[in-house]
Amino acid sequence: MPARSILTGRVLMALVMFLIFVVMVGVALDYPAQARFMPLVVGIPGIALTLFELIREIRRALAGDAATAPAGDTSAVSVPGDVSRLLGKESVSAGAATPAMSPQEAQKREWILLGYFTALLSGILVFGFWIAVPAFIATFLRERQNTRWRLTLGLAAAATAVMYIVFHRILGMDLYTGFLTQSVWDAVFLTD
Amino acid sequence: MFDVMMGTLFQLLTTPYLMGLMVIAVAIGIFVGATPGIGGRLSIALVIPFVFGMDMIPGAIFLLTMHAVNGTSGQISSIMFGIPGDGDDAATTLDGYPLAKQGRAGEALGASLMASGVGGIIGAIVFAVLIPVLEPIILAFSPAEFFFLALLGITFIAFLAGSDNIFKGLSIGFFGMMLSFVGMDPATGIARYSGDFLFLWDGLSLVTAVLAIFAVPEMIALGVQGGAIAKLADENLKISYRQVFSGVRQLFTKHWFLAFRTSIMGAIIGMIPGLGSSAAAWLCYGHAIQSSKHPERFGKGALEGVIAPETASNAREGGALLPTLFFGIPGSSGMAVLMGAFLILGIQPGPTLIKDHMDLVWMLIWGLVVGNVIAVSFLLFVARWVGKLTFVNGGMLVPFILVVVVVGCYINEGQWENILILFALGLIGYGLLKYDWPRAPFVIGIVLGKIAEESLNKALALWGGYFFLRPLSLILMALIVLTIGYAVYKNRATRRAVAVAGKVRHAS
Q1: Of A134, B164, B288, B372, which has the fewest beta carbons less than 10 angstroms from its beta carbon?
Q2: Sign of the dihedral through C-alpha B432, B476, B349, A39
Q3: Is the pLDDT of residue B425 over 90?
Q4: Number of CB pairs, chain A paired with chain B, less than 8 A apart
């Protein structure tokens, strides 16, 4: 069996959880006795549980039983066992109108969405909320939802305006202005 | 107690600020409950940053009202389009949708919305009635018991994941607990898991963690799925008010006793943590079938099939509030997120609530009652339009909600570093969602971890290593062992049944 087939997403997820516990327990070992007590009380069973889960997932992967439901699938709601026998049915169709998509397509969309999420957070860190948010909303709506330009720009402007009114004016909060934007601002206006 | 009870009701009804907040909470609750892709837990997580600066009572009232209303509005799409938002609504769909197809959507909506309101009110009453009974028990709890209660809470909530997932549930609960240890250790003053990052010395931001684990993954999943849930012809949307009020009338004339019974059942089921959020609705649906003289009508459009699950699922909220507030054990995953939000507002679950904050407890009970009255009155009139929210393209909401998530994560502490935490935990959260790791135990872990550690330190200081030999502690330890043992047994039984079914299929 090629090693690649064992590394399913489920196995990787279990591995990540296992490693998190291992690292946290490892770090806790350097703390004084009282400070490390609870992390060890919780972390060691955590290692055991995630190791158990990891072995289970590897065995499943080896058995070729790694089929997964698409993320966020709400198309069917399972009926609890007793009631299903009562009703003679296993699930209630949600009647979702979204067409079924291939795993490849789902995977592609997933990467795109994660890319957008990463871009939003990076954009905020570099350029700040006031630039990154309208840019993100406009790009997402235009590229992912194919909205018309006028609607796209209108919604992006409206969202920024709501953000300004609610957070800046009403709640009196200063939103993060970003590394780059702040530096440029300081350089141009010679502020501290 | 009577003074506090009536005083809080009077205060609630005569304070425009509180009533205004409830109306806003009802409106938001209806919107998020009826809009595809935004569930109750997510909506509570999303509004946490906005209630962060609020006082304890207004913030709690706002969140609880919203939580209570979420479920009520979710039934509209179940009945009109056969699209259940969650497990509770799925039970309503079985008879609600056939009723709609028979042109009786208005009747079904009238009966189910009113049933939901009645259930919510009776659930709150059951909670109120049980307070004097439980008071001495709660006050008898010491730090030792609270330590075990915290562990029991995680064990119970892991059960919410289903018996097959209990190990995953426990792992995630423990993961949450480990993250709760981030920051300065109160006993030794050592900064744990914080490195040189000063922003972590006060601990990991609960708001950021909850948003990352719940909101981010849901939004990515919604973006992947895309599209509107309903693309049906809107013939089911033609509803007359005469039909709606006919449904309401039938509830009070023909089916009032069923509504009463299922409300009590729902409230009691809600008090049992870990029984599952949809158990109340399904068990009461089953009860309605068993107690009916014409069980053959069920599944084809019986009004009782709509009333029973709706009364039960809303009554459950009142019941679930009891273990959440007094024992720190949330009765459902939604309550788990709500409890996290309560802690952010400074509401510490446990005996201090009964000793020092009975006004808050009564305010929450009244909040449930009044919130349900407002929601049902409002929904009976606007149900036909609320149903149209199901046509909203979920993908369109993704960028806006993601922005709210990031803003919320930033403003609660004003630290840009929290955005990095949001990213890291958001990725883990998406992995958990995608690969069927339950996420509710995470909130319980991160919330109860601190309580557990503080209680353990106090218990050790008071009784040394023998704290676990106290009678109540022994009972709680036995409960933890029994819970895990039962889960393991059920897990094996299920696997055996699946294996036998597989062999039978193979042989045939």
Answers
A1: B164
A2: negative
A3: yes
A4: 228
